[in-house]
Amino acid sequence: MKLYFQQFLISRLSIFLLLNLLTLSFFACAHHPQVKTDSNSPSLETPTSPESSQILSQEPNSRANLSTPDQTFELVRQAFRIQNVDSLMAVLNHTTLNWLEEITQAVASADSVNLANRPFFEIITILSLRNHWRKSGTDRRTIKEALQELVKNPFIQQSFNDYPLGPVKINGLNATYGLEKAPSVPVFFLVQESTFWKINLIPTLPLILKGVESRFSTKHPQPLNRAFAVLKFLAPGLNRTEILTLR
């Protein structure tokens, strides 16, 4: 029974599950970390893949639905609540969509050198999805298939639905939410695109993961080793060589 539970944890693990597990532990890290990107990677500012371009070409059903940050975040919560992948795609900003596209491709293509040059939150996302998808028979999936795995996870639904938020803070085309217990510390980030407010996951994830990252940083100073240590903690049977080997 214990082994089955460990396998269940790792098979359903995703970056958003860790978001749920570590929300309360990151409050000591109130600064906004800089997210480093590879200068050789495609730009995240414009659509670079057919899937991202297709998603971005689809207008939300109603402009009024995304006319304020509160309306957008309520749609995000509803998408997780009823497991509606199409609705969730409609409220992700284009930078997040392109990032998810790149991460999805990296599940099948990122070797140890590539992973070692990435920030912690990207490494743990890639390895989590790689492990789950390989157990399902392949590690080549689409953004939509990745999101399908996320929205049907009850822990993820809890992350977006059960934590009371503080008031929104709007600064031009950007908006942030903190939790009710620490409203001055941003957790969720939104950006206005062509009058629509969209959620931006990229600056959110490093903050959320700062707590767990710091817990493992002393024994594992390198981000790749740190990410594997977190996964190994959740699933002791995880094989490092297997999860790092490309197929």
Structural commentary:
This protein is of the alpha+beta class. The protein has one domain (2-28, 61-244). 53% of the residues lie in helices and 7% in strands. It is built from 13 helices and 4 strands. The chain has helices spanning 2-12, 15-22, 50-56, 69-82, 85-90, 94-109, 112-116, 120-135, 143-151, 154-161, 204-217, 223-234, 240-244; strands at 169-171, 174-177, 188-193, 196-200. The chain has a 4-stranded antiparallel sheet, with helices on both faces. A hairpin with a 2-residue loop joins strand 1 and strand 2 (174-177). Helix 2 packs across helix 10 (154-161), helix 4 runs antiparallel to helix 10 (154-161) and helix 6 packs across helix 8 (120-135). It is globular and about 45 Å long. The two termini are 31 Å apart.
What are the key terms here?
single chain, 247 residues, alpha+beta, 4-stranded antiparallel beta sheet, 13 helices, 53% helix, disordered N terminus
Concise summary:
Helix content is 53%, strand content 7%.
- What is the topology, as strand order, of the major beta sheet? 1-2-3-4
Mean pLDDT: 77
Taking all Cα atoms into account, the compactness measure Rg is 17 Å
Q: What level of helicity do the residues show?
A: 40-55%
How many strand segments? 4
Counting helices, strands and paired strands, the structural category is: alpha+beta
Note the gap between the termini: 31 Å
Describe the main β-sheet briefly.
4 strands, antiparallel
Q: How many DSSP helices? A: 13
Could you outline the blueprint of secondary structure elements for this entry?
Layout: H1 2-12, H2 15-22, H3 50-56, H4 69-82, H5 85-90, H6 94-109, H7 112-116, H8 120-135, H9 143-151, H10 154-161, E1 169-171, E2 174-177, E3 188-193, E4 196-200, H11 204-217, H12 223-234, H13 240-244
Antiparallel strand pairs: 1-2, 2-3, 3-4
